[in-house]
Amino acid sequence: MELLGISLALIVMFVGFGLLIGILFGFFGMGGSFLVTPALLVMGYDANVAVGSGLAFVFGTSVIATLKHRDLGQVDYKLGILMIAGTTAGIEVGKVGLEYLQELGLAGSVVSVAYVFLLGGIGVFVTYEAMKSGGGDGLEHDVDEDADLEDEEIPEIAQKIQSYSVPPMISIRGGFTVSLWMVLLVAFATGVLSGFLGVGGGFIRMPALFYLIGVPVPVAVGTDLFEIVFSGGIGSFLYAQSGAVDLSIVAPLLAGSALGARVGAAATNLVNEDDIKVYFGVMLLLGSIAVAVREIGGVLEMPVLDTVSLAIILGAALLVSGAVVYSAITMLRSEASASSPAAD
Amino acid sequence: MIGGSVDAMIEAGLVIGIVLLEAIVLYVGYGAAEQVLAGPVVDRIKNV
């Protein structure tokens, strides 16, 4: 039996895969094209279709996840628009750097090494910081605009950046103000990295929003997703012009991810903030290993390593999304036992 | 790829519009299902 020109079994697989990615996307604000594009490539789709369809899927999922985060009060639109402006300028500068390396014939190797080290570096840093804070109860999930965060809840670098009172100052969801120029500077820096590496940059922006600006993690995720709506939309529009967006791939993936994104977004409101960081760090660490394996496969001309790389990514996605759901369920149960009156 | 004909741009806009429409329909649809099912599911999780 076929639907949309593909077999029912493939549709079911795409829906299941979409569900998995949706959980991660809604929870971390990253991971869409990181997971989908390599999977489509290994399944034998042309590179432009894999990238174009991956971007269209990311666009659709980010719309759903952003709407869900908006319901939870976790999207700062003002910050998001400023981030888009700064990131767009940064991407252009990053692309210039990339073109320069291409002229020197060094782009492939430098970008690969930088990508692996950046993924791994951010993964180690985020995991270490979360472990260092000792677990405990983590941060409050409340993101009331009027609620002030305690100083110890804001990372040191962010406190430093917030202390630069260069006008105009803007208020950020989470109850603090920061110089508009600092926000643009951080956005520009993440954009440079994103443009240089040729990636969406969710894995750079989310920690940057938290560690550099001091935005609470759930709001960092929601605001990052808001930005991805625009970057994913523009990217997929450009690819769709050459017919590279295959709706028979995107539609079933989206059907699964729409549910997963709701689950992932809701989980950010339940799971301990330090746990979110640990999962994020582990996901990035395993991602960096997967990318390293793929690059080594390219250098050694061993296509089997592409499959190994994909297996690592899918295994990591399955492991981390499972951990997210498990943590959310555990939190629900512990909340229930804490709020219920003592048994007779 | 970039700067294609007007026809290609219209077609691309249509494709992106379909993706956006599907996303919104799914958001609303799953949202309605969540309204009905989330409470009993959460209660069941809490009480297992």
What does this molecule look like?
- The complex is a heterodimer of chains A (344) and B (48).
- Chain A has 344 residues and is mainly alpha-helical.
- Chain A contains twelve helices and four strands, in the order ββααααααββαααααα.
- In chain A, a hairpin with a 3-residue loop joins β3 and β4 (176-179).
- In chain A, α10 (247-268) runs parallel beside α12.
- The longest helix of chain A has 36 residues, at 304-339.
- Chain A is globular and about 55 Å long.
- The relative contact order of chain A is 0.20.
- Chain B is built from one helix and no strands.
- The mean pLDDT of chain B is 86.
- The longest helix of chain B is centred in the middle third of the chain and has 42 residues, at 6-47.
- Chain B starts with 5 loop residues before the first helix and ends with a helix.
- At the A-B interface, α3, α9, α10 and α12 of A face α1 of B.
Indicate the proportion of strand residues of chain B.
under 5%
Low-confidence stretches of chain B: none
**What is the SS-derived class of chain B?**
mainly alpha
Shape of chain A: globular
- Computed over alpha carbons, the radius of gyration of chain B is 19 Å
* Major sheet of chain B: none
Query: What is the 3D shape of chain B?
Result: rod-shaped
Instruction: Tell me the strand percentage band of chain A.
Output: under 5%
Distance between the termini of chain B: 54 Å
Strand tally of chain A is 4
Count the strands of chain B?
Answer: 0
Helix content of chain B: over 70%
The mean pLDDT of chain A is 81
Largest interface (CB within 8 Å) is between: A-B, 33 and 26 residues
Nearest-integer average pLDDT of chain B: 86
Compile the SSE list and pairings.
The complex is a heterodimer of chains A (344) and B (48).
Chain A lengths: L1 E2 L2 E2 H21 L3 H11 L4 H25 L5 H28 L2 H26 L23 H8 L5 E4 L3 E4 H18 L4 H12 L3 H24 L6 H22 L4 H28 L3 H36 L5
Antiparallel strand pairs in A: 1-2, 3-4
Helix pairs in contact in A: 1-9, 1-10, 1-12, 2-3, 2-12, 3-9, 3-10, 4-5, 4-7, 4-9, 5-11, 6-8, 7-8, 8-9, 10-12, 11-12
Chain B lengths: L5 H42 L1
